[in-house]
Every structure is written in C-alpha cells, then in structure tokens.
Design brief:
Elements lengths: L1 E7 L2 E6 L11 E9 L2 H7 L14 E8 L11 E4 L2 E2 L5 H4 L12 E2 L13 E4 L2 H4 E3 L6 H7 L2 H11 L7 E5 L3 H10 L6 E6 L2 H9 L3 E4 L5 H8 L5 E6 L4 H10 E9 L12 H7 L2 E4 L4 H13 L9 E6 L3 H10 L6 E5 L3
Parallel strand pairs: 10-11, 10-13, 11-12, 13-14, 14-15, 16-17
Antiparallel strand pairs: 1-2, 3-4, 3-8, 3-17, 4-5, 5-9, 6-7
The protein binds nicotinamide-adenine-dinucleotide (NAD) and zinc ion (ZN).
C-alpha cells in the first residue's frame, strides 16, 4: 500500500510499504477513506520527537476490511471513525473510553512511533477496535467524523477544563483547527465574550465570523492585547491551543484573579519556566491534558446532531494522499489560507 512516511526534518514522502497486519486478536484492518493532518503531526515534522521512519496520521475514517477473532462489536464492512489515541485495550480505563488513564501501556497516539503506524495511508491496523472506533452514525458527515477522531474532543476538553461559567470572559490562544474547535465548544457555556488570539489574519477573520473578538498577537502582543481589551481586568478563562512557550506564558498572564488556564496545545518540555509568582498572586488553576477521545463521543454526537456546535467549515482543502508532501508544506506555512486539509488515499 501507499503511506506517508516522515523521512527527515520537514520532509514527508509517499512510499510503498508492506500492508499492515492485525495488531492482535482484538484488532482490525481499516481501508482508509479520509484522513487529515493535525498540528500534532507538525510537531513530528519539526522533529519534536525522533520521527524518521514514522508513518504518521491519527485522524482516520474508513471501512473495516478484516477483524481478529476476539472482535465482538465490529464487523467487516462497518464504516468507522478511529480514536487518534489508543492504549492497552483491556484495562478498566480503556473500557471506559479513557486511554489517557491506562496504566498498562499509557496513551499512544497512532502514527507517532514506528511500533504503531498511523493512517495517512491506504490501510490502517487498529488495536482493540471495539473500544477505539465508533460506527459512524447516520447523518454525521465524513468531515465531522474526522473531527471526532481528535481535534473536536480536544477543543471540547479545552473548554471543559476551563470550567467556563455563564457570563465569564474567555480568551482562546491559537486559531488553528484545534482553537476553532475550542472556540465552538466554549460558546456552549454562555460566556459574555470570547477573545480569539492568533497572528494569521485569515484565521482571526474566521474567529470573528464565529462571534469572537479577534486579537492580533503579532510582535508577541497576545496577552497585552487581551488585557487591554478587558480594560486591564483580564479574562476568567484562557484556553491555550498552540503549545508554544510564548502562548502558555500569555495564557497565564492574561487571566484575572482566580482565573482558569486550560491547555490543550502540546508542549512536552521537562524544564518549562512556569511563572510561579503569577499562580500564587492570582490564585490560578492550571490544567493540561490530552483528550480521552472515545469517552467524549457520547457527549459530542448529540451536540453535532442538534446543530449546537458551529464548527465553521474547518476543512479548507481536499487533496490526494499522493500530494501529502505539498499538503504538509502548505499546512505548516498556512499558505493559500489552509486551515485543515482532508487527504483522500484513493488519489
Ligand atoms: P496549528 O499549528 O494549525 O495551530 C496553531 C495556531 O497557533 C496557528 O494558527 C498559529 O498561527 C497560532 N500561533 C502561533 N504563534 C502564536 C502566538 N504567539 N500567539 C497566538 N497564536 C499563535 O495546529 P492545530 O492543529 O490547531 O493544533 C494546535 C495544538 O493543539 C498543537 O500543539 C497540537 O499538537 C495540539 N493538539 C493537542 C491535542 C490534545 O489531545 N491535547 C490533540 C490535537 C492537537
Ligand atoms: Zn491530532
């Protein structure tokens, strides 16, 4: 089959690799129908983890081609979306849809290690398929199904961890696709104002069209922009959806006393300079997490069905898998207004 492979810093290639085999008796092979590139793939692309040889991709929708003998609740022919994060698949946490709390293997994002290939490919092997896939319900579009594999649960988690109360003011740092999902989710909690912070004019314009007040953070003026816009008060909740030192500091700086900082942008530094004085002086709460993706589906599906989540057409581009190298480059450079790209493995 053809698959995307990270071959060097800022380089992906589409190459022919062996077809995947079942990961175990509870696994399945999926024929990939649609897959996307995530901001987390860009961390690999930029060498955050050793990634040469990794086949990336953790946002996958497709049809089951083969199941192992222990699979009970899925069958060949089921059209499913796949959790971008999996784990042992046997423990209580995995059974509750919370691979993040798995103590056996811990959470593993598909396509981040050579031991568990990702789905920017024609085929994908999924472990514990009963737990880590969802049969796509009638009426859920392919695009929304792809969003449910990772970034919608993540944006939703960003809003949930912020504990937004009706009337609160909220700032979302980063208007990439994850920030857009966080903005859409934050609106569900009845905040008085949402500020959307980014440096890319089209992304700020999109946030404004979704009802947010745009703040251009060019020249590192993100926190200051939010503080000025709130007449010095700061916001009740800051959601960080970038993962940079700068934006984490901004999120911590722009909240008012008893502010909540909710971080879903990924940052894996072990010696991060945390401004402890701010935490004490403002009595802040700080939470950071990966989303427990399967556990969010039962909350998110009704919200999608009733139309209360305004996801604002995040897929700006559709390309063939064969164009993955160009797609990565465009997503990384945000060129041609690209916000999120759907890759079609049949092309
Ligand atoms: P993205 O790269 O498209 O978005 C990042 C955005 O941040 C861009 O729009 C960029 O212009 C903006 N930005 C950069 N510097 C800024 C600054 N100084 N101030 C304000 N904005 C700034 O990526 P994405 O797909 O939206 O992902 C965002 C983050 O979410 C990534 O770190 C990704 O790894 C993470 N993520 C986390 C989870 C999870 O489970 N926690 C899941 C998926 C993605
Ligand atoms: Zn992702």
């Amino acid at each position: 089959m053809r698959a995307v492979v990270l071959t060097a810093d800022k380089t992906v290639e589409v190459v022919t690799v062996d077809d995947p085999v079942l990961s175990g008796p509870d696994g399945a092979i999926i024929k990939v129908e649609a897959t996307a590139i995530c901001g987390s793939d860009l961390h690999l692309y930029h060498g955050m983890l050793p990634s040469a040889g990794v086949q990336p991709g953790h946002e996958v929708v497709g049809t089951i081609l083969e199941v192992g003998p222990d699979v009970r609740e899925r069958a060949v022919g089921d059209r499913v979306l796949v959790s971008g994060v999996v784990a042992c698949g046997h423990c209580g946490a995995c059974r509750r849809g919370d691979p993040i709390s798995c103590l056996v293997t811990g959470p593993i994002a598909l396509g981040t290690t050579p031991a568990l290939h990702g789905g920017q490919a024609e085929l994908l092997a999924v472990p514990a398929v009963d737990l880590f896939t969802l049969v796509i319900p009638e009426g859920v579009s392919t695009e929304n199904a792809v969003l449910l594999t990772d970034i919608l649960p993540t944006g939703f988690l960003g809003a949930q961890m912020g504990n937004i109360q009706p009337g609160d003011s909220v700032a979302v740092f980063g208007m990439g696709p994850v920030g857009v999902m966080a903005l859409a989710s934050a609106k569900l909690y009845g905040p008085s104002q949402i500020f959307a912070v980014d440096v890319v004019p089209e992304r700020l314009a999109r946030a404004e069209a979704m009802g947010a007040i745009p703040i251009n953070a060019t020249d590192d003026l993100g926190a200051l922009g939010v503080i000025e816009a709130t007449k010095g008060r700061g916001v009740n909740v800051a959601i960080e959806a970038v993962g940079n030192q700068r934006t984490i500091q901004d999120a911590l700086s722009c909240v008012a006393a008893r502010g909540r900082v909710s971080m879903v942008g990924v940052n894996l530094e072990m010696d991060f300079p945390f401004p402890m004085a701010l935490a004490f002086l403002k009595a802040l709460s700080f939470r950071a997490a990966f989303a427990a993706i399967p556990s969010t589906w039962s909350n998110l599906l009704p919200l999608i069905a009733e139309g209360s989540l305004d996801l604002g057409d995040v897929f700006t581009h559709r390309m063939g898998l064969s164009e993955a190298s160009k797609a990565y480059e465009m997503f990384d450079n945000k060129s041609d207004g690209m916000l999120k790209v759907l890759l079609d493995p049949s092309r």
